[in-house]
Predict the 3D structure of the following.
Amino acid sequence: MGVRHGRCAVVRRLHSDRPGYRIRGTRCLPALVRNRGSRQLAGCNPYRRPHLRAGPAFPGQWILYQRAQRRRSDRPALIFAITSALGWRSAFFVLGGGGVLWFSVWVLSTASPKLEPVWHDDPREGDAPKEKLARIIVQIIGSPRFLPVLVVAVLINPCLYFSVNWLPTYFAQQHGLLPGSQLGWILTAIYLGVGVGNFLCGAGVLTLTRRGRPLAAARRTVFLLATVPLSICAAVPLMRLSPAVFALVAVNIGLGIWVAMYLTMVQDVSAAHVSTALGLLSGCGSLAGAVAMWAVGRVTQHTHSFALPMAAFSVSAVISAIAGWAASRETSLKGGTV
């Protein structure tokens, strides 16, 4: 009893000044519960409603959050190092400068006559009558590949949002990791997995096609292999800290492959209106992601466990693989290789 009260006092002292942070009840006993042999902080969630803050400036939101709190956090290690050495404002300039440099290198590397059709419209299309947006959307929805790719969008997007928004809370509740450099390095390793997966997606498909496999078959092989690490997410709540970190790195590598693969699937829905198809499908995926993140918050608040959300993550990956197989099979049946 004394240890439990002492732990609770430390938690209160560390986080009593954090907005949105509260410990249920006036006594300390509800603050620590046992769930499947793991201590968790019940109701102690400093990342309140993270799904409402997700967006293209996700690293920036944590910089501002920690600036408001005036204490170190679970920021990814790169941002942690920059803000520690140069101040919190410098992280925006350094990361923004890196983006400008990356964009410049990308523009120069793609300035090839072979890619001119990508950057410039065909002059012969200037005199063609413009299609109405409603007609374009009807054509996209009528595509035989639309429904399976839509299933992929509404399942893979929530998985990505879950990884970005809820993993810090998972480590805080499941393993008792308070914000600090250790959690920052853990999240850095995990989120780098997404970038590695993006690279492996293209590299894997390219390698298989160069060895003579059809493009559709190469894509199927790659996303089916990526589904394997995603399926182990259901077992993560049962793992200790070190195995859980390695498992989540593998999960995010598979997730990175799937995110890149989803973007290639969109091109198969409508080769003539890729941007419109992407906007329609990704909009549905984002809406599903927002609802899913709200549901994760409700479930973890009532159960104090991530077992159900992570099981749903694995099930979503398997269903996405089935839908992706249907989409790629449709391509191969028609003899196409796009």
